[in-house]
Amino acid sequence: MTYGTMIEALGAPTRRAIFEKLAEGPSSVGALASGMPVSRPAVSQHLKALKDAGLVTEKRRGTARIYSVDPKSIAELRDYFDRFWDVALDAYKRSLEGGDA
Amino acid sequence: MTYGTMIEALGAPTRRAIFEKLAEGPSSVGALASGMPVSRPAVSQHLKALKDAGLVTEKRRGTARIYSVDPKSIAELRDYFDRFWDVALDAYKRSLEGGDA
DNA sequence: GAAAAGCGTAAGTCAAGGCTTACGGAATGT
DNA sequence: ACATTCCGTAAGCCTTGACTTACGCTTTTC
Question: Residues A81, B74: contact at Cβ < 8 Å?
Fold first, then answer.
C-alpha cells in the first residue's frame, strides 16, 4: 500500500517537478533550487516528503547532500498502474458484454 | 502533459479510493457514496474532478449517472511511468559508473 | 579556531481545497 | 399534474499544506 504515499507525494506539482529533475541525475539541494521558482528551504521540505515516501535517497558529500531517485519506487508505481490496467480493462470488457444492464 | 492533471487528481486519497472502486466496474454516484465515509455531494465533486482530468467517463441511464474509468487514461499513466523508469534507470547507471564524482 | 559553504528546521502566513448542508433541476413512475 | 429518485451546484466552514524568513547545525577550508 506504499504506492499511495508515493502518489500523494507526486500530487503536488512543485514536488513532482523536483522529482522529474532528479530523474535526470543526482543533484544537490542548492543546484535543484537554483533552477526553480521557489526558495531553497521549500525544496528542502519537498525533498523530505519525497524521501519519507521512499521516492528518493540521500547521501552526503562534504557539506552537500546529494539526492537521487530510488529506481525501486518507480518500479513500484509502474507495477501499480500495470495491475490497475488489467483490472480496469477486464471490467471494461465485462461492461461492454452486458455483464450489467 | 495531461498526465500531470491525472496524477494531481489521484493525489487526494478519497478521490483515489473512488477511482479504484470504479476500476472494478461502472457504478452510479449513490452506489459509490454508500460505501464511503463521505457524503454523496462530496463524491459527486470528486467525480467531476476525475472527469475533468480525463480519468472517468459519464453516461446517463434514467435519472442515474453511470461513471466508468477510461482505460486510455490508465494507459497514459502507465506509459508515463514506463518512460520515467527508462530515464531514471539510465541516470542511475551513469551515476554508478562515476559519471560524476 | 574562525570563517564559509551547504542544509535542515521552526515559526508564521495565506490561499487552496475537501467536506457539509441546503437547494434546484432533470428524468421516471402513478 | 404530482411525487420520487437521483444527482449537480452554491455557499460556507475549516483544516491542510505550500511557501517565506530567520536561525542554527555540521562539515570543510585557511
Answer: yes
In chain B, domain spans: 2-70
Return the beta strands (E) in A38-94 as ranges.
56-61, 64-69
B28 vs A: CB within 8 A: no
Whether B33 and B82 have beta carbons less than 8 Å apart is answered as: no
The crossing angle, in degrees rounded to 10, of helices B71-96 and A13-23 is 50
What architecture (CATH level 2) is domain B2-70?
Orthogonal Bundle (1.10)
Inspect the interface and report whether the beta carbons of A99 and B4 lie closer than 8 Å: no
SS3 A64: strand
Give pLDDT, residue A2.
Answer: 87
Q: What is the pTM of this model?
A: 0.92
Inspect the interface and report whether the beta carbons of A25 and B74 lie closer than 8 Å.
no
pLDDT band (50, 70, 90) for residue A1: low
